[in-house]
Design brief:
It is a single chain. With 451 residues, the protein is an alpha/beta fold. The chain has a single domain, classed as Alpha-Beta Barrel (TIM Barrel). The chain contains 12 helices and 18 strands. It is an enzyme of class 3 (hydrolase).
């Protein structure tokens, strides 16, 4: 029997309109007009609450196996379901072993079995000396690779220098998969550090000065040169500095296959508003100025930035060093899976962006990056019925019970935001509804990515 999920605002690739999703056996049979709903369909009428494609987050640190006390598949996918995400792509570091070999990928898949409320896949890692593992990882189904041009904070996932990168790029280009790059270079950071030896590390201004724009700009210029030489797909993760946008714009106009993401914390917070000792707001690259934030929004409007990812990067609370408030000692990362959509929608409402923009930035574009846009990211006939019901007008205060991930700490606590996820559906079945996580585990490892 078909189910009809009805709304005055269904967000489709052709725009937002009154429609019904006809769902049968876990798939969208049709997206039809309200007068075309079959008489025998079971109706679920959500009125003016919007129906959007399930969100896809291509930048998540789940940390399992090995550091499940930081997060884990059960808690990360619980937060994802509450936040409207139906697909997560896990980063290959912070877990043990790091996902730099097929054996490590298989260990991760075993660890996830029976735990996931939403679907997931894992990026492979490109690190110093693992070139021979890159093509086997592609054949094993990773959707792409992640590398760091600077120390990533965990010893087991090594940064990769230019020589090592050039040794890896022929295999990456041959795979056809994207290379996701943490684009900061050590040189500008080391030069900045020389002038901060006696600085106050409780001051956010000190931390901001320690990660200058030049670190991002120089890294991105290097990657553009290598992209031109090796013709691989390049993706810049968590762009913070808008000073790099002109280089990226020029390179893309040249036809280079480059995509760019930013994150909700760069679009919401501003350096001028961060108090001394507020280490919950430490991330790398750093949150920059208010003017920089508004320039990021302008770049989203004109298409210079393609997508918004969370960079959900949790840790045990003590690692944020709230006891000392020292930014140099605190772990860099902000957890946000369950609240990223309301945070972004709150900012969108202030700037007259639409639900179509949300669907493009947070569903379709990340699905294309991960090579799963034939499975996820749009409400299209034949696709799996992964969608969310979202009340764009309701407001709520972010409290610990809204977070759902393992450690309920957040720099967003106490803020009032707009937009409530009423329900998240995976293959036509609810995994989250009206504030409650559904007990059935329905998520799965995405099979055959790029195979």
């Amino acid at each position: 029997m078909a189910h009809a999920f009805i709304s005055h605002r269904v967000v489709t690739p052709e725009g937002t309109r009154p429609a019904a999703l006809l769902v049968e056996e876990g798939r969208i049979r049709a997206v039809c007009g309200l007068s075309e709903i079959p008489a025998d369909a079971t109706r679920h009428d959500y009125g003016n609450a919007a129906i959007l494609p399930g969100l896809v987050d291509t930048h998540v640190h789940i940390n399992e196996p090995g550091r499940t006390e930081w997060e884990g598949f059960a808690t990360a996918t619980r937060a994802a379901a509450a936040g409207g995400y139906t697909t997560l792509i896990d980063m290959p570091l912070n877990c043990l072993p790091e996902t730099t070999t097929v054996a490590a990928l298989e260990a991760k898949r075993r660890a996830a079995e029976g735990q996931c409320l939403v679907d997931w896949a894992s990026w492979g890692g490109a690190v110093a000396g693992n070139q021979e593992h890159l093509l086997p990882l592609a054949r094993a189904g990773v959707p792409g690779y992640k590398c760091f041009l600077i120390y990533p904070g965990c010893d087991g996932f090594t940064m990769i220098d230019q020589q090592q990168l050039e040794a890896a790029l022929p295999s990456i280009a041959q795979s056809g998969l994207p290379l996701l790059v943490h684009a900061e270079l050590a040189g500008p950071i080391e030069r900045a550090a020389a002038g901060l030896q006696n600085a106050d590390w409780r001051s956010y201004a000190t931390y901001l000065a320690s990660r200058p724009d030049e670190a991002e700009v120089e890294a991105i210029r290097l990657m553009i040169r290598l992209c031109r030489m090796y013709q691989f797909r390049l993706h810049i993760v968590h762009l913070s500095s808008t000073e790099a946008l002109e280089d990226l714009r020029t390179a893309r106009a040249e036809g280079l296959p480059i995509t760019v993401e930013t994150c909700q914390h760069y679009l919401h917070f501003a350096a001028e508003e961060i108090a001394d000792g507020a280490t919950l707001l430490k991330c790398a690259p750093p949150i920059r100025s208010r003017a920089n934030r508004e320039a990021l929004w302008k770049a989203l409007r004109c298409g210079d930035i393609d997508m918004v990812a969370t960079d959900h990067s949790p840790c045990p609370p003590e690692m944020k060093r709230l006891d000392t408030g020292r930014f140099d000692l605190a772990w860099g990362g902000i957890a946000s899976l369950s609240i990223a959509l309301p945070v972004i929608w709150t900012e969108c409402a202030r700037r007259e962006f639409t639900l179509d923009d949300i669907a493009r930035w947070m569903s379709h574009a990340p699905a294309v990056l991960a090579g799963i846009d034939d499975q996820a990211g749009s409400l299209i006939s034949g696709r799996e019925a992964n969608f969310i019901v979202f009340d764009t007008e309701a407001e709520f205060v972010i409290t610990k019970d809204r977070l759902h991930y393992r450690h309920p700490v957040s720099p967003y606590l106490g803020e009032t935001v707009r937009g409530v996820v009423h329900a998240t559906y995976l293959r036509g079945e609810p995994v989250f509804r009206d504030g409650d996580i559904m007990p059935e585990v329905r998520g799965r490892a995405i099979p055959g990515v790029h195979q």
